[in-house]
Amino acid sequence: MAKKKEKKNVSSKPSKKQTKKNKHQKKHVKIRYGRIALAILILLGIGFILYHTLDLSIRNIYVKNNHVLTDQQVIERAQLQDYPSTVEELSFFIESRLEDDIMIKSADVKKNGLFSVTITVEENRPLFYDINKNKVILLDGQTTDGNYVVPTLINYTPDKLYKKLQKKLAELDTEILSRISEIEYNPNEVDQSRFLLSMTDGNYVYLSLNQFQKINSYLDIMKTFQNKKGILYLDSGEYFRILEN
User: Fold this and answer.
1) Where is this region: Disordered (predicted)?
2) pTM of whole model > 0.90?
3) Domain 126-242 class?
């Protein structure tokens, strides 16, 4: 009968040579980490000194696409009026501050190099002043106070037509909108959505909501009547009745 071979116990204890090698490796790792930490501290120190000694303030601010707000008003709403450090003012934060303002629909901020900022805004422009609400109605339907060169809605308008009027005014060319002085809800038996517009040049225009876009051709239409004063009926064709002096 064959005898089983006895297994020799192999010691797992590292040799003196291996222990010495491991200690040597740990020492190198500690030295390496120490050098990295020292380099980081030096860089932070240099950055701190540069930050407090160099002038890193914004030097030029350009504002684009603003028509209602002035450049200075946009800069103040962005909280850049004191020309702060360009390092502290990230584009995202400037955009957020601007878009929190009721008069600004959206904002895009870009830095040109280190010291220049370009702000492009889309304004939530005012459409008309509602005399009954004593408020200015903005492009998105919100209301605000303030003095703006906008038409005045002088009488009550049913809610359903009121919303349609807002939409139609928002679609008008801004130049034409600025030429409307007053808006009066003026229905008749035929058309319950008719309005009478008083123009800044002394003319009057009857207009239906479903044909409201015709007013965009106002200047060209009036040229055909040799710029005489009168009443333009755009709710039924393009009939013009001259008013006698």
Assistant:
1) 1-27
2) no
3) alpha beta
